[in-house]
Amino acid sequence: GAKLQEKFSTLPDLVQIAGFWFPRSLLVDVNLGYLNLAEAVLEVASGGPLNTRAILDQIELPTDVNIKLTEFSMNLALQEDPRFDEVGPSGEILWFLNRLEPKEVQNPPVQLRYQPTEMDLSKAEGSLRELNKLVYDEMEPFGDLPSKENEIAVSLIYPHWAAGTIPLSQSISRLFPSAYEAPRVRFTFIDADTGKAFPGWVVRPYRYVYGLKDWYQEMNLIPGALFLIKRGNKPGEVIIQAFKKRVFKEWIRTILVGTDGGFVFTMLKQQISNDYDDRMVTAIPDREAVEKLWENQSRNRTSLDKVVLTVFRELMKLSPQGHVHAQELYAAVNVVRRCPPSCILGILHNHPQISPLGNLYYRL
């Protein structure tokens, strides 16, 4: 297959879309008028997604030639026009109007943006392997081990919770539809308990899945709450399920933000109605205040080392021995700043005042 692909791509007369090849000389001419009609058809459909046949049926492109050929010609014309985005999972061609896609699908939400920093990881390699078994982070392309399971229980860091996204780490990406070349893939989420269906987007260039903002709120999930992602019964579907439980008041880590923009982590009683991961959970009583923290940080360009150390000191106060676990630190730092596991560990292992105690515990 790969050899054939390579040979095809060198032949100037052959064109490809979504894994299919055709000779250009046989193609039907699709002029701008038809493309403008296609845009109008998609606009009426709230942007899409529509398959090619559905668009052709409405724009009356003359089809005295083979319908397959007409479809291919139309696909190529749409693909070469920047207004249209091919968003079908592998083996399916679906079209969407670029400008009607959610903006978070075109560009990463603020909370998921991260400026990579040079980091010496030579001392942290073993610990990084251990931490990556416990968390799913899209910034670690070789992070978690690819899981062969058809379902994964995930707990989210604040940035994904706030953005309504899921990280496309190695093992999670296997549960979501992919595509031959489309950078964005539109699919359907199904809530396992209610059967409710709503749209989701796999954003391949930035390695996240978008579309869960409302669902997180409806389910009362908080950062660190657990939920299940399951491969769907049909190719374009993914099943999700919250781990609901009776509402309890429980002592959990909570972030409080002062009027001066300082923050503290403390243990407070919170109403909880979902299972959660002890080390990942953080209650956010005042979301606006936390969002302000993010704005201030990007303005003041606080160094990452400084943020990590501040959070480390906060977490030390919550532990009787003053020990801090790397997974806790990862989750807590991410409440105030997007930061992948490798960066957290790079700072921990290179900081003169911090010593590793083994099993991912550290102390100052």
> Helical segment tally?
13
Q: Tally the beta strands.
A: 17
State which percent range the strand residues make up: 15-25%
Main beta sheet: 7 strands, mixed
Radius of gyration: 24 Å
- Extract low-pLDDT stretches: none
Taken from the alpha-carbon principal axes, the silhouette is: elongated
Order of strands across the biggest sheet? 6-11-12-8-9-10-7
Distance between the termini: 56 Å
Output mean pLDDT. 91
Structural class assignment: alpha+beta
Structure, briefly:
Helices cover 33% and strands 25% of the residues. The protein is an alpha+beta fold and 364 residues long.
What distinguishing features does this structure have?
single chain; about 375 residues; alpha+beta; three-stranded antiparallel β-sheet
Written overview of the protein:
This protein is of the alpha+beta class and 364 residues long. 33% of the residues lie in helices and 25% in strands. The chain contains 13 helices and 17 strands. The strands form five sheets. It has a seven-stranded mixed sheet. Strands 3-5-4 form a three-stranded antiparallel sheet. It starts with a helix and ends with a strand.
